[in-house]
Amino acid sequence: MKIVAVRVTPIAIKDPPLLNAAGVHEPFGLRSIIEVEGADGQIGLGETYGDAPVLDLLLKTRGSLVGLSPFDVNGLWARVLAQAPAVQAAGSVEMELAPGSLGSNLVNSAFSAFEVAFLDLQARTLGIPLVELLGGAVRDKVAYSAYLFYKWDASVDSEYAPDPYGEAVNPQQIVQQARQMIDQYGFESIKLKAGVFDPMEEADAVLALKAAFPKHQLRIDPNSNWSLATSLRVAEKLAGCLEYYEDPTPTLEGMAQLHRATGLPLATNMVVTNWAELRRSVELNAVQILLSDHHYWGGLRATQALARTCSTFGLGLSMHSNSHLGISLMAMTHLAASVHHLSYACDTHYPWQSDEILVGGKVPITGGCVHLTDKPGLGVELDRDKLAELNEAYQRCRIRTRNDVAQMQRFRPDWQQVKPRF
Ligand code: GKR
Ligand code: MG
Question: Under a CB-based contact definition with an 8 Å cutoff, are residues 139 and 146 in contact?
Fold first, then answer.
């Protein structure tokens, strides 16, 4: 069976004004939706970043995939690689908070988006859930965590109604946000995105969460925005509270020093985003938990290999997320369901997204989990009207590459990105 058509559609999805170390989210997040159509009319789906460099590579590659077998993922790799030099030369996003946008991860990001669509098409052709191509499910549901953000009520330049969560700029509002999210989705662990306000106030928010949700696992992630000294002070204040401490301080060396001083398990999606960094991290014992992400680690099978490597070196494994829709969520879920070594609830931004392009709307999260179904492939179908609507939103919107710093400067013209800020 041969591939007869490949479509890549950029879309813009509404995104709330979530605050982070770089600044604030723009009113729209960009995604690329991939469709790989086989000669029998079946369509495999993929989803990835919609930032210009990745989109460019996807668009340049897609024509060369026509005529390939959807089972030929090595052929896919060769074709992505063949287009990469032109795109990389044109520059990259290099937004550290979105590791898939790093120039060095571009090929893996584009390959991954197509690989998911190839695997989805393979599985649909065989009439089996995608997870079976990954060796079968070791669990029938995948746990996700409540991903809390400091945020403003609405964007300065929003073209749509504010999200249902409201403002969150202090510990009480963070607890309220957690309650709202947990009531709706049943999450059993909580991650607080930090690096925004005074670190001691952010630690107070964790303590308030601990008091309000004593049975929940807690994590905090300031995206490397704290010096080593600040990270040590926060560690002391949060002694005994954290499941893991995510990217408190910059660099592998900084993380290694922090781990030596505190003994705390450190997690990352920032200082280890490729195999060379993983090797160095193991040498230094810099991080103890890796936040994998198939979008930039080179796809579902490469992430399975990453999981085995983590297991070999005694590292824990969890999963990172950027703003995404349901195709990505289902790819994450099929992958996570196939990995014995997954030791923690995965991150997902999904509750923050009000748009969806799937028939039936949003993928349900119940009891904090996404459940696998018996449907073939990823188990989801495209709603073409919604896809067209969000593609129009992309055509209309001014954003072509995520830039949280520039968005913050709309609120505060004097804002500069400083790292570490505290
Ligand atoms: O979307 O603001 C955000 C997050 O900070 C994101 O950019 C990070 O990549 O979720 C991420 C993380 O865990 O670091
Ligand atoms: Mg992180």
Answer: no
